[in-house]
Write a structure and sequence with these properties.
This protein is mainly alpha-helical. The protein contains 14 helices and no strands. Helix 2 runs antiparallel to helix 10, helix 8 crosses helix 10 and helix 11 packs across helix 12.
């Protein structure tokens, strides 16, 4: 008996319909008066934190490294996008697209600069050097007041980060990383995580793939930084201290290292918590810590482990059960007719 399965074009069509449905629903919610302004802001913030978590998951979860400088790449992208948008050299639509691309490319360049030497190290050493990079970027921003505004901050940034812009960037980030991980490059990245020595002995250029994953991760962190700038309208260097890198890593760990769905769920949970804890704002960090400790004790792999949601796979599973049940029913009918 041939098993029920969906063809590839049908899979893509289902995913496209799901993406469009979320876009329409989200746009209706944020543009209407269904939610308060604070709730609408949380929805937009969830979007760029998903980009940050999914991009970090590429290097921390799929690649198996421990970088702690994601806030540095975010800062590079934020100030690049903000400075370009303040110049106002292009119409709004084109300016948004070009600003986001420039922000991503600037962060990617820094990803190459820090990635080539840093990724020769492992574990704690990699964490320390990337943490130092993040702090170096913050200090550099503080000491360039003529360009970045220094400690006083960079103000009057055009607010381009609408729900539509953030959602499109989030979808592009998730799709690009999904396609990378489903390709031969993704298999090479996963093999490096499982056993780097064995992977290198098979002829795989591990340095190339480690730097590639690091640069793609930095690129999307830069885009998320630009969205952050376009959302707040003002930037100060203290927004990008090492605690920001820790918060992003905490989202990845909470959701599940190596699970894109886990990063999305973790970003939604941790970004929404301040709104849910308005009356307990001073205890927010304590609740964060307790939540992380509880998850690590009872589910060390994170909320979702390594599971990734697939609507087409669920439809296939339902279809197989339905078709197998139909076949069994037909057999039972035939058996009943034979006995008669």
């Amino acid at each position: 008996m041939k098993q029920f399965s969906l063809r590839m074009p049908v899979r893509y069509l289902i995913n496209a319909c799901l993406i469009i449905a979320f876009l329409i629903i989200g746009n209706i919610i944020t543009q209407g008066e269904l939610l308060s302004r604070a709730q609408n802001n949380i929805i937009i913030q969830v979007g760029f934190f998903i980009i940050l978590a999914v991009s970090l998951n590429l290097s921390a979860g799929y690649l198996g490294q421990l970088p702690l400088g994601h806030a540095g790449f975010m800062a590079v992208g934020a100030y690049t996008g903000a400075i370009f948008w303040r110049m106002g050299v292009l119409p709004d639509g084109a300016s948004v697209v070009v600003g986001l691309i420039l922000a991503g490319l600037a962060a990617a360049v820094f990803g190459i600069i820090i990635g080539i030497p840093a990724l020769r190290l492992k574990g704690d050493y990699l964490a320390i050097i990337t943490l130092g990079f993040g702090e170096m970027i913050r200090v550099l921003i503080n000491n360039l007041p003529s360009i970045t505004g220094g400690a006083q901050g960079l103000a009057q940034i055009p607010r381009h980060s609408t729900f539509l812009v953030v959602y499109i960037c989030m979808v592009v980030c998730c799709l690009v990383i999904h396609f990378i991980m489903k390709s031969r490059h993704g298999r090479a990245i996963l093999s490096i995580r499982d056993n780097e020595i064995a992977t290198e002995s098979c002829g795989v250029n591990t340095t190339y793939y480690k730097v590639m994953a690091f640069v793609v991760s930095a690129f999307f962190a830069g885009i998320a930084g630009a969205l952050y700038a376009g959302f707040l309208g003002i930037l100060v260097p203290s927004d990008f201290d090492f605690m920001m890198s820790i918060n992003i890593l905490m989202i990845v760990v909470l959701g599940g290292m190596g699970s894109m769905l886990g990063s999305i769920v973790g970003a939604i949970v941790l970004t929404s918590m301040p709104l849910l804890m308005v009356d307990l704002a001073r205890y927010r960090m304590i609740v964060y810590a307790l939540l992380l400790i509880i998850v690590m004790i009872f589910k060390p792999s994170g909320l979702m482990g390594t599971y990734d949601f697939s609507l087409s796979a669920i439809i296939e599973k339902i279809g197989r059960r339905f078709s197998s049940g139909k076949v069994e029913k037909e057999k039972a009918q035939k058996g009943g007719d034979g006995n008669a």
